[in-house]
Structures are given as structure tokens and as C-alpha cells.
Amino acid sequence: QVQLVESGGGLVQAGGSLRLSCAASGSIFSLNAMGWYRQAPGRQRELVAVIVSGEGTNYADSVKGRFTVSRDNAKNTVYLQMNSLKPEDTAVYYCYARSIRIYWGQGTPVTVSS
What is the pLDDT of residues 1-15, one digit of tens each? Predict the structure, then answer.
């Protein structure tokens, strides 16, 4: 089992920045991917950015050049640095981890005001 705890969401003006953190605990040695998804009201959950072991990072086209995903293995933590935020980035952001199954965090809301 893996537990994921997110932090760092909040309210920010358009053009601002936020950094999300996700601390993993439990059977973290089994994880081969970690990252972030988001879900806006009335929409399906979508990939934002993921780090896949041995393969690199994948980003949604809508966040390329603005968001950066990184992982600190010593702290068992994955981060999402979000810059140049737009109102359309408003969503609940979920930490994601994958081994032989998928794990989700509880979600942290991000609201970008115009």
C-alpha cells in the first residue's frame, strides 16, 4: 500500500505561481511513476504531468512551458511547480502514483482568479 498526502493548493491571481507537494509513504519502492492529474468542475480527470521511471516526464500540452514536475527520492516527494497560472488551470489537483496499481491523493484545490 502507498499513501499520498498533497499540500500547496490555494487561491492565486492569473499570472501567479504555486508549488504543489505530494509526500508518499508505504511501499514506495514499488512505484514506477508519480505525478499529477487535475479535475475541473464538470470535466473528466486529466493528466497534468507525470515522471515515469526510466522514461522521463510527460506533460499535457496545455501546461508545457509553464509547469514543471520533479521528484525528490530522498524525501519521497513529488512536486509540481506551476507558473504563469491561468483561470483555466482552476481545478482540484490529485497526486498520482503507480506500481502494479494506481494510487491517488485526496486532492488539493487550486483556484486562479482573473
Answer: 899 999 999 999 999
Q: Which three cell numbers stand for residue 64?
A: 508545457
From CA 17, how far away is CA 30, in angstroms rounded? Answer: 32
Query: Rounded CA gap, 7 and 62, in Å?
Result: 22
> How wide is the angle at C-alpha 45 spanned by C-alphas 95 and 17, nearest 5°?
55
Closest CA to 84 of 96, 68, 95: 68
**Bridge pairing between strands 56-59 and 46-52:** antiparallel
Kind of pairing, strands 46-52 and 102-104?
unpaired
76 close to 70: Cβ distance less than 8 angstroms? no
pLDDT tens track for 46-99: 999 999 988 999 999 999 999 999 999 899 999 999 999 999 999 999 999 999
Instruction: State percent of the chain over pLDDT 90.
Output: 89
> Which of 52, 17, 53, 35 is CA-nearest to residue 97?
35
Q: What are the phi and psi torsion angles at 87 (to 5°)? A: -55, -30
